[in-house]
Amino acid sequence: MPSRKFADGEVVMGRWPGSVLYYEVQVTSYDDVAHLYTVKYKDGTELALKESDIRSQSSFKHRKSQSSSSSPSRRSSSRSRSRSRSPGRPAKGRRRSASQSRDQKDDKKKTIQETSLALLVLVLFKPSENNTKRYNGEPESTEKNDTSCIILEQKLKPDLEIKRVLEQYSLRSRKDDKKKEEIYSEKKTFVAVKPIEKVSTKTKELEFGGRIGTLMLILLLPATVFYLLLMCKQDDPSLLNLPPLPALESLWDGRVFGVFLLWFFLQALFYLLPIGKVVEGLPLSSGRRLQYRINGFYAFLLTAAAIGVLLYFQFELHYLYDHFMQFAVSAAAFSLALSIYLYVRSLKAPEEELAPGGNSGYFIYDFFTGHELNPRIGSFDLKYFCELRPGLIGWVVINLAMLLAEMKIHNLSVPSLSMMLVNGFQLLYVVDALWNEEAILTTMDITHDGFGFMLAFGDLVWVPFVYSLQAFYLVGHPITITWPVAAAITVLNCIGYYIFRSANSQKNNFRRNPADPKLANLKFIPTATGKGLLVTGWWGFVRHPNYLGDIIMALAWSLPCGFNHILPYFYVIYFICLLVHREARDEHHCKQKYGLAWERYCQRVPYRIFPYIY
Known about the structure:
It is a single chain. This protein folds into 3 domains: 50 residues, SH3 type barrels, CATH 2.30.30.140; 270 residues, no CATH class; 133 residues, no CATH class. 55% of the residues lie in helices and 7% in strands. The protein contains 20 helices and 11 strands. α8 packs parallel to α12 and α12 packs antiparallel against α13. The protein has 614 residues and is α+β, with helices and mostly antiparallel strands. The strands form 4 sheets. A 5-stranded antiparallel beta sheet has the order 4-3-2-1-5, with no helix packed on it. The protein has a two-stranded antiparallel ribbon with strand order 6-7. It is an enzyme of class 1 (oxidoreductase). Its EC number is 1.3.1.70. This is Delta(14)-sterol reductase LBR. It comes from Melanocharis versteri.
């Protein structure tokens, strides 16, 4: 094993990934397996660098130019020659002024060249999102509305004009200019084609309690879903009144599993239809951008039309309610089989296609979090498809089935007010997600988390069967509410939805086009990734205003179920825990990614989700 060259705590010069620029860094640790140094820049950025990308500070000391001093003999001969002047040479005073003029021109040209070179380096080697997305970190910067490029252009304009005049009346031979252009062209070509070295590292920081925690989650998540559904079926769904365990043979029905498969592949067919626009996702670590077809809302309309046809031919949709537990078991079995397939295929995936958070080398952990970032079969993106289609649209279909089941069981001509509120609120949420489908491409689920058991089970089981818990509860435990109460709950849901949607729209519009005149009033902290951290608007109120709106809506969805039991409030309790945990994950990733810029943002916006509370 080769010995390390630089010690912990040593101050050295580290090359910024993807560029030829070196900055002063401090070595913090060394990975003996990957042979990588973890270094920390002055701005708090922490990167993993190879030894070849690190140099000692002594190699960057400025050397005294040898051309500045000439030999004594050369100086004396120069003086002796200068005493005798040929008739063709100008007078001494005149010669001095001409020499000074040439020196001024040379100094001016040198200043222009240095300024232009600085601008060229800034353009060519500015750390972009591709370079820093994997490595994390930010330089020091202040809040601004970015006009630095315009100011720099105005400052350079007179110098560039002088440079143009000097070049136009230059006395150098065109042969020298041509030769200089060829050399510059070769250098430019060399810079353009120089490959960016990639550093592949294992996942060092394990989340969700590591291997033991993820193993427990794999066992507890399905158990929690089945427990909640069994509790809702009881006449007294109190926490202390444990439900009896059903017979194992009653949990499985081949016909139900066939219906579930039909539903899954019908949504896959809608996804493959050549309707809707095609957009590019965020750049991957390799710089490549994947393409996604945005047609979730069209899939929802086609599903609504298909359900309408079934109801027209008097298909009993409350079949879902009668076999709800069996549908949940079928979905869980399918998600487990899908997770196994995803992990097996990920073993052959290239290193650059693995998820940054699911490449630990531990089977259980990578199986749960997802080993491959974007598993695809051709152009069919499995993670992106499951994120919104089968589970989210299925959630609305299940709610509709519960509404029809309530009407049939209780002999109602119209659904109860509580059931209509729950259906209406959650329908609005799903339609909003599908209408703004493109925004999901910037979420952590797509950009960071791999596709494993966590997302497969969450998308196909947890979302449709737990998020519909209020509607399922109301079928067996009807609640009567008055119109004023319904109006107050509606207002609460509208407030939550307004915060949720306006905050997300503000963020997405700023990411899409920060120079939009409509966003000119927004202040932000610039970062080296090219993104800005908003410190005004909703994002200057709390760090995660969209989470605040989500929680308010979750409470509004549970209130129509009354206060007889805590079971229908499981969703809002779970959602608060989920978003607090996700906020902690966001904080950790953002601190690594943005460095001191994120610390300044946290000082400016101290509250995470709940203003003046948390």
